[in-house]
Amino acid sequence: MTDRTRFSINQMTVKQLTLPELADVCVQLDVTQVGLWREPVQAYGVEAAAELMRDAGLTVTTLCRGGFFTAIDPKERAAALADNRRAIEEAATLGTDTLVLVSGGLPPGSKDLRAARQRIADALAALAPYAAERGVRLAIEPLHPMYAADRCVVSTLAQALDLAERFPAHQVGVAVDTYHIWWDDQAPAQIARAGASGRIHTFQLADWITPLPEGVLNGRGQLGDGAIDMREWRGYVEAAGYTGPIEVELFNEELWARDGREVLAETVERFLGAFPAGPR
Amino acid sequence: MTDRTRFSINQMTVKQLTLPELADVCVQLDVTQVGLWREPVQAYGVEAAAELMRDAGLTVTTLCRGGFFTAIDPKERAAALADNRRAIEEAATLGTDTLVLVSGGLPPGSKDLRAARQRIADALAALAPYAAERGVRLAIEPLHPMYAADRCVVSTLAQALDLAERFPAHQVGVAVDTYHIWWDDQAPAQIARAGASGRIHTFQLADWITPLPEGVLNGRGQLGDGAIDMREWRGYVEAAGYTGPIEVELFNEELWARDGREVLAETVERFLGAFPAGPR
Predict the structure, then answer these.
(1) Average pLDDT for B130-151
(2) Does A192 fall in a domain?
């Protein structure tokens, strides 16, 4: 596969585009793969979205996102499991084999990271076989430690793998996203660990730019604008045996304020430019 | 020592107070220890500040901060070393044995964290004996990974100890600050490692609150307002043999907008309240 055919655009990067616009622009730009998000897919209709993607010749590489497993209240936990079962069904309908999980932060009033991580393990046990029966793998995404309190208590690849390895690799793996792990000197070894058991279920790129915006959610940099050596990280992932799609997922207010087609064209260019001679 | 006598107020928590006001309020509130910052001390005069602290019966627990060792340009590196020698002399004049180091981020255009960490090691080799001759220990402070690009490429206690252990413990140790390490499931073991070689040179507290403000610098929470279990972390540090001062260092715009005396009184109360029955 060429770099161009490995590229996948995560819908969030160009969320200003409607689903039909996204499909249309992808066709225009020779982009053949997309990562989708549940909310816009649900708003459009899951079956209709699947058909739209198929008709445009687009492969859905991931669905974002399930997760939010850390509630203590039994009713909230049951609701989260039910919602994740729906997410698994949506992924299956869209034809993607990978549901990305953002595991959830500390519940209000709790300071117990360890217990929260245990509740994630419990939820995975309830969901992983259900997903596998539908041909869907769960990909635990470690989020940057700055999200540990309010979004995801799984902060490192090592923690994500500790959770994933309780299950067969075809059921649970990890999402490797440069934005979340670039600072971690243990991450290269953990990528090798993930690859050795076939658990790299998706590889996503975003660059690290500063200053971070308030709330630190929507300041991910366009490739090449920040501190991350994309070639180095692609090298680790490929040395670990990963040959799948490479998704670019940027949350960025400035990109969202621009023309979506232009942003997608720029993202393709930046992606190709980031790997002038392939991975090193 | 009682909890009250172990308490130290880091000057930054109440930076709205002048040095004489700080000394005065400390005396009023029975606070006997302070951590100082170079800029206000320099503005007041280092000798004069030392005298002011002595006259108020205050012990200076740390001086913040040296560091910023990651520049590539030889002139910038020489300037950084010269400035750190001045910081060491200032610490000695103030009578504190501990200079806290914020090691520096990636230089402009660089994406090489590993090389930046090596330059920190080189700077430490140049400074550690100089500091030890003046009775000053260097305390490498790992900063939260959200600062890795622009402030400190040392993101974990493990990395800080990897650097510190190249030197004798009386020359180089680490600063353990809850705000920076609370998310890290490896940190308890690293605290034990630091304690075993006598390298916990300071222990600082701040709570983690969200949402983070733009730039993520000045959103540290008052003790008890956030996600961190202070008792748990104090327990790790004391199990590792640490019996020294416990400094509260909050960077917080809301606290700075209030009356400094009131904030310091509240901080003492929160500190005592955080450890109702001592460490667990």
Answers:
(1) 98
(2) yes
Q: Is residue B279 part of a domain?
A: no
For residue A139, pLDDT beyond 90: yes
Task: Tell me which residue in A111, A211, A228 faces B215 most closely, judged by beta carbons.
Answer: A211
Which residues does chain A have within 8 Å of residue B144's beta carbon, measured at their own beta carbons? 145-146
Q: Give how many domains chain A has, as a whole number.
A: 1
Instruction: Name the percent of chain B lying above pLDDT 70.
Output: 98
Point out which residues pair with A138 in neighbouring strands. A99, A172
Contact (Cβ atoms closer than 8 angstroms) between residue A9 and residue A249: no
B219 touching A (Cβ < 8 Å): no
Residue A133 belongs to what domain range? 3-274
Nearest to A7 by CA among A262, A223, A225, A254: A223
- Between chain A and chain B, the number of residue pairs with CB atoms below 8 A apart is 81
Residue-wise pLDDT for B35-89, tens only, equals: 999 999 999 999 999 999 999 999 999 999 999 999 999 999 999 999 999 999 9
From the list B148, B182, B227, the residue facing A183 with the nearest CB is B148
Whole-angstrom distance, CA of residue B97 vs CA of residue B91: 7
Q: Is residue B184 part of a domain?
A: yes
Residue at B280 is within a domain = no
Band (pLDDT 50/70/90 cuts) for residue B3 is: confident
CATH number at residue B20: 3.20.20.150
Q: Which residue has the tokens 């975003």?
A: A206
Secondary element (H or E) of residue B207? strand B207-208
Query: Which residues have CB under 8 Å from A273's CB, separation 6+?
Result: A223, A224
| Model confidence, pTM | 0.97
Compute the distance between CA of residue A239 and CA of residue A252 in angstroms, rounded to an integer: 30
Question: Phi and psi for A35 in degrees, rounded to 5?
Answer: -105, 130
Task: Measure CB to CB from residue B212 to each of A114, A215, A227 and give the nearest one.
Answer: A215
